[in-house]
Every structure is written in C-alpha cells, then in structure tokens.
Write a structure and sequence with these properties.
Number of domains: 1
Order of helices and strands: HEEEEEEEEEHEHE
CATH architecture: 3-Layer(aba) Sandwich
Number of strands: 11
Distance between the termini: 22 Å
Radius of gyration: 15 Å
Structural class: alpha+beta
Strand order of the largest sheet: 1-2-3-8-9-11
C-alpha cells in the first residue's frame, strides 16, 4: 500500500463534498504513511496498514509522542475518525473508524486510561485464523469501505 491509497480516500471525501483541510504528514508513525486533515467535525487521521509475515491481517501503528519523550496511545478526543488503508495484492479498502468505536474496543484511551499503540486489522478478504481474529474482523468490517468506483461511501463521512 502507498500514500496513493490514502489519496483515493481523500478523493472519496471530495466526491461526497466533505469539506477538509490540507493533508499534513505526521512525524510519528511515518512508516505507516501517517497524516491528518481537519474537517468541520474534527481531525481525521490516516494510516496505511502493513502486511506482516507470520499473522493474517495487517498491522498499523497508532501512537503519539508523549511529553516525556515516550509513546502513548491516542485518546478518544484526539481525532474524529481514524482511516486505516489496507492493501493486499489487488485488494484495497479503508477502515473508517469513528473514535467512539475505537474507544469501545480499547484501541484509543479514555480519560488517559487504556488504549493501544498499534493493532491488527482484518479486511473482508483476510483469513481470520483464530476465534479472536474472527470476532475482531466482524466489528471492524462494519467500518470497511472498499476503494472501488461504485462503493457506497456516504455513510462513512
């Protein structure tokens, strides 16, 4: 996957008439094409997920630099949505996660508690090789947008 796939998501947003600011790269998580843009509803963060050699699904890093120099998970109020682009071969799509969904699943912190610095995504084409992976895939696919010309994208933005 490439930053070009993130540009495809921006094109979807533009086609839907979603007002947005310029896409700005984020220094942290640069290996995952980290970027963000402002919308009237709040910040939208973008990441590209990576295929890993030993597990199904793809991995994405989602942390920020803390004031002490360490890393910490994003908080529920740090973004309106997190868009994670997934590509395997010719299959490509984007998870458009509302921040509240990520909070309810323990991915982002709430009031400084919990959250993760990275997590695995399971697109519809990915084999979920364990019960936990299958359960994760079920909730994640509710937020999955195929990046095809005819995908109904209006419910995501």
């Amino acid at each position: 996957m490439t930053a070009a796939d993130i540009q495809r998501v921006l094109s979807v947003m533009d086609a839907l008439g979603v007002p947005r600011g310029e896409l700005l790269p984020e220094a942290d998580n640069g290996g995952y094409d980290a970027a963000a843009c402002e919308t009237p509803g709040g910040l939208v963060r973008f990441r590209s997920a990576r295929v890993t050699p030993r597990k199904s699904g793809l991995f994405v890093a989602v942390w920020r630099r803390a004031s002490d120099g360490g890393t910490e998970p994003f908080g529920v109020g740090d973004q309106r949505r997190l868009v994670v682009v997934a590509r395997e071969g010719s299959d490509v799509g984007a998870f458009v996660f509302p921040s509240e969904t990520l909070a309810s699943r323990g991915v982002v912190s709430v009031d400084g508690v919990g959250g993760k610095r990275g997590f695995r995504v399971y697109p519809p084409w990915s084999a979920a090789n364990s019960p936990q992976a299958a359960a994760t895939q079920r909730w994640q696919c509710a937020s999955f947008l195929p990046l095809t010309d005819d995908a109904p994208a209006d419910r995501f933005f």
